Amino acid sequence: MVSERSQSKSIEPEEAWEHFGPDFVLLDDIKPPQRIELARERMLLSRLYLGLIQTMNDDYGAEFVKHSDSATYRTIGIYVFLRTVTCSPVRASTIAQVLKIPRATVLRRLNDMEKLGYVEHVGNAYRVTDKVNIPELREKLQRRVDMVLATARELSKLGTGPEH
Q1: Can you tell me the distance from the alpha carbon of 79 to that of 128, in angstroms, rounded to the nearest whole number?
Q2: Cα dihedral 141, 147, 150, 153 in deg (nearest 10)
Q3: In angstroms, rounded to a whole number, what is the distance separating the alpha carbons of residues 14 and 147?
Q4: What is residue 90's three-state secondary structure?
């Protein structure tokens, strides 16, 4: 199980990021500009966001990444996935309303995903297909969990929680 490894083995922050190369490895002695409020915390979160996006790009390949508005494409895909795993296929109009994306854009992206086999129509709603079950899924998910946990540990050391 993914969470068992996370609970049994505490990885070092560098380990969670080393497979991305030097652009993602943060050095403790880096001092972000003082003019940027909470810069180090925001730097850590930016690295996490970019790392998660990059792992999705790596997992689903060029066909998924080639869209010029791939952030919108990914966001719609993630929302359809979430609704599918909660056993609630979703209408395009709901996706547009919840994500605040024009309905025409949502329909175009859903059509693209449907052509690639990632989503399917169920009545007048959409859900993801089994194509989301990519090879080596457990290891890939664990890598993401490690990234999140490493970032959470680093943020907790900075003491920026609500009690501070």
Answers
A1: 10
A2: -90
A3: 9
A4: strand
Reported confidence tier of residue 82, pLDDT bands at 50, 70, 90? very high
* CA 27 to mean position of chain CA atoms: 23
Tokens 């922050």 locate to 13
- Residue 123: CB atoms within 10 A of its CB come to 7
> Mutual orientation of helices 103-116 and 70-85 as an angle, nearest 10°?
80
Q: Report yes or no: 67 and 100 within 8 Å, Cβ to Cβ.
A: no
End-to-end CA distance of the chain: 34
> What is 115-155 written as a DSSP string?
HHTSEEEETTEEEE-GGG--TTHHHHHHHHHHHHHHHHHHH
> Which has the closest alpha carbon to 158: 39, 9, 47?
39
The packing angle between helices 70-85 and 92-99, to 10°, is 120
> At 26, is the pLDDT very low, low, confident or very high (cuts 50, 70, 90)?
low
